[in-house]
Amino acid sequence: MTANANRPLRTGLISGFVLRAARTSMPATQQRLAELLAVDLATVQGWESGRRPLANMKAGVLLGMRRRIAVLGAAPAVLALLDPAMDADRIIAAVLAATDVGEHPLGEWVHTRQTAHMLAWALTGTPPPSAAGLLAGPRRGPAGAAPLLAPDDRLAFFDRLRATVETAPRTDAGGILLHRQALYLSSYDHSPQAVAWTAQALRARRGALAGHGWTPRWAEARSTAAALARLGDPGPLWDFIERAMAGDDDGEAANLNYWAYWLGVAHQPQADDTFMRDRALTGLDPVALLRALADGMHFAPGYVDLYTHSMWALLYAHPWLPQALPALSASLAGRLDRLLDEGGISPRSRRELGEVHYVLYQNR
Fold first, then answer.
1. Which of the four pLDDT bands, split at 50, 70 and 90, describes residue 211?
2. pLDDT tens-digit series, residues 301-321
3. How many of the other CB atoms lie within 10 Å of CB of 190?
4. Which of 49, 87, 316, 333 could be cross-linked to 115 through a Cys-Cys bond (beta carbons 3.0 to 4.6 Å apart)?
């Protein structure tokens, strides 16, 4: 399946949609925004439709436009979505254009949950939690209610993404990163054939799960185990926690660093996965990380074990955290009460959950 050659690709679709949300938050019409920015109406329409990607603008011009819109009253929460939206647009454009492996954005930097959520928005129509409530009321025109890729483009995106998974060379850090992130994004295709392909591709990576503690394939193993849990097989994730994290300082540091980056707590962009081994990661704020873990805690089998162990390791390293966040600690302790009663977790997680629960109550 290929993209429709007779229809120009809107490779700035997501950032254009966010710009539209920023404009309506001011509020202003397209014509009024064009006047305020001293551009013609067609330029604003091109930005918002995705035909003129914001990411293609000169850096200084883009910065000036963003500052001008902010001064004019655009909602800061909306403007904060522009960077991950442009990242997601760039990934979509690269996949659809079958970009060479050496220049592929999925092999150039480690993307965050915010970027992944933006991609899911375009691929599935599911809005990012950070965008909830930003657009009120019905929408008209090509933007619709979400920045969805056209059906043909969506099919082409997943076809080419799977081809990338199958051909990406895993001989260096960039190739390993490209393969890992492309495989993760492939799981956004929920068609039966795609789910079967993803499950097979993930299980073919089981060799990466055999390592103990930190290895160069640690991040690949973690992603593989987590994705298998998402498909209903939590066993590999339980095993990964036992072998590659528990009792290994490098593995524990890698897990917390991974969470900090993925959840947006550590903001320094990373070109590959090697930063995860750094025990003194710049910008890692344990208070912000505990809050982010608590806010995002997922109770599905396997995932709940990963969250439990991560919070246990964070509190073990920083036992003062409950005193810094008394309200959050009280709320989290109540949620853990219910989880302990419900079961469905591994023996290790039950033990660690009890210890986390005790620390939260004792140090509030």
1. confident
2. 778 889 999 999 999 999 999
3. 10
4. 87
Q: Which long-range contacts (CB under 8 A, 24 or more apart) does 166-170 make?
A: 166/201, 167/101, 168/101, 168/107, 169/101
Distances in Å between the Cα of 265 and the Cα atoms of 77, 245, 248, 283 are 17, 21, 23, 7
Q: In this structure, what token pair is assigned to residue 228? A: 């298998």
Find out whether 179 and 168 touch, Cβ atoms under 8 Å. yes
- Note the helical H segments in the chain: 13-25, 30-37, 41-49, 59-71, 76-79, 82-96, 113-124, 151-167, 173-186, 192-203, 218-230, 235-240, 249-262, 286-296, 303-317, 321-324, 326-342, 347-362
The two three-digit tokens of residue 196, written as one number? 């079967």
Distance CA 244, CA 235 (A): 14
Token pair 């939260």 is found at: 360
pTM of the model: 0.87
**Residue 226 and residue 237: Cα distance in Å, rounded?**
6
Round to whole Å and give the CA distance between 311 and 292.
10
pLDDT more than 70, % of the chain:
91
Domain ranges in the chain are 13-133+151-183, 206-362
- Per-residue pLDDT tens over the stretch 246-269: 988 889 999 999 999 999 898 888
Radius of gyration, alpha carbons of the chain: 22
Pick from 202, 194, 107: nearest CA to 159: 194
The H or E element spanning position 4 is none
Residue that has been written with the tokens 């397209």 in this structure: 30
Which pair of structure tokens corresponds to residue 238?
């339980």
Give a three-class secondary structure readout of 160-199.
HHHHHHHHCCCCCHHHHHHHHHHHHHHCCCCCHHHHHHHH
Instruction: Report the distance separating Cα 123 and Cα 130, nearest Å.
Output: 17
pLDDT on residue 90: 94
Q: Which residues contact 233 (CB under 8 A, 6 or more apart)?
A: 302
Contacts of 295 (CB under 8 A, 6+ apart): none
Structure tokens that stand for 124 in this block: 């599935």
